[in-house]
Request: fold
Amino acid sequence: MNDTTQETPKSSWWRRLSSGLKRTSSSIGTAVADLVTKRKLDRAMLEDIEDVLLRADLGTEVAARIAEAVGNGRYDKAISADEVKSVVATEVEKVLTPVAKPLAIDAKVPFVILVVGVNGSGKTTTIGKLAAKFAAEGRKVMLAAGDTFRAAAIEQLKVWGERSKAPVIAGAQGSDSASLAFNALTAAKEQGKDVLLIDTAGRLQNKAELMNELEKVVRVIRKVDAGAPHAVLLVLDATVGQNALSQVEAFHRTAGVTGLVMTKLDGTARGGILVALAEKHKLPVHFIGVGEGIDDLAAFTARDFAQAIAGIGA
Reply:
């Protein structure tokens, strides 16, 4: 009986993940199937397969490596689409395994998580989902509405706070986000909260003044707790494709990003960008999102993602 109940969340997440990545896996699978039909494997076919993988945003190094692995020992032989998918899954899993790390909430009280990312990346929603997840684990959570530029972000966070029964520290629109972070951390300490999630404005990485403000938030937090923030999560929208690479560089430089959350994988045929990011930046990937629902954000696992992106059934 127990086994069944344990399997249900896992299998339902697999269904959401594989259907969420359907646009990416279909774009790879359909193109590969067209290429391998009635042809023997040769250099031209491998180049075509590499192009398919590049279009899914897997990145040049990974695409070249997969094409080489497909060609290994198979020249002048017929190859099936399933064989290619199997190689894609194996090679992608190799890239992702080192970065698939859970977010470890240690005994620091409060454990301060600063959440950064550009507007529209799903940052505030991600904070709400994480708050619900931590609350369900029995942790005492507080939220800080540090995206003070947008009234909508403040209101949205308050709604999530109500859902997860987490108090929200917020100021008026346009108030100083560093002061708000300072007040929130002070309150979280006084109230013995386990986790403090701090939202920040969705800064464009080329806007120097906004990046400076983010640096100020980090500096001010450290006045209250020299070891904080204990985690800096960068929320990335998968639909931006290659743009995600420059976002990681800019935010990593400014805020010392410790881990990634990738959202909106269900909205793109370019879900391979996560693989390119793992290959280039080697930053831990903690969570991925494949929809708007509270259960559509889950811990990242390399094998599940690799198989879903290759279109291989569970």
